[in-house]
């Protein structure tokens, strides 16, 4: 661990922390808001938390890119990191941020704990996340004593069994043999009464036959649906992905942007702002080289597909690699990009 580069990122408030790590956040990728520049592939000892407190996220990660290579605008400059290992409290913290669960800043209401300590009191059970003051309460377990109800029911059933089946010889009461004879007579009478009349039997048979006829599948003269040409669709989507990379490499912003659907708009940005940013980033370097490898297309249906690949980006002294996924949809006979994201490492 001593040979790893220590990367410490601090925030003043919990809301700033959760917002700062959100770009591309997953269990396998974390964004670190920092001005520090590190080469791709650098392994770091990651520590992210509140200023003056133990880290809320800590583990080992590897630099995979920076905010300049990210296709969407990030809140602040920083580095994208592929997670190698996170300790269990850090993993739970990331899961809560991904689920959108609130993480209250209750500093000063709890005593200081170690980064892996779990504490509980008599009223609630609370798990303390890494660093003091990050507490998410969970509702207490309420137990209701219903055992006496079951015991009373068992006692009542036993009393009824003794009352009805214990032999008696008092006047006006039946003995055990007499009760058996009466029970047999009652069962025979019930069987005779429940036997249906012949007319009712015929009516039931007609009903069953009618229901069977109705349940038979109806034949249809409609033609079978056409078979989905997955190979042809995959080839079309591959050509769009390669054209996207070629337009980026040629710094042709018009061709690059024309491959996106009119409805495409990244989170937290309008389409006009996003287009202006992309044009500026494409034209700024003296030269750009973008290449794709391990290109794979998943066809969902005739109008939806996903292209996944490993992207290599080179501009000036920057040499970056990242796994990406493009969501494509067929619009007016042409495949267009409707979504773009960094895909988790396989």
Q: What report would you give on this structure?
A:
- With 346 residues, the chain is an alpha+beta fold.
- 33% of the residues lie in helices and 28% in strands.
- Strands 1-3-4-5-2 form a 5-stranded mixed sheet.
- Strand 6 (118-120) and strand 7 (125-128) form a beta hairpin.
- It is flat.
Identify the notable features of this structure and list them briefly.
single chain, 346 residues, alpha+beta, Thrombin, subunit H, Nuclear Transport Factor 2, Chain: A, four-stranded antiparallel sheet, 12 strands, 33% helix
End-to-end C-alpha gap = 25 Å
Strand order of the largest sheet: 1-3-4-5-2
Percentage of helical residues? 25-40%
Helix/sheet category: alpha+beta
CATH topology of the domain at 230-342: Nuclear Transport Factor 2, Chain: A
Summarize the structure.
The chain has 346 residues and is of the alpha+beta class. Helices cover 33% and strands 28% of the residues.
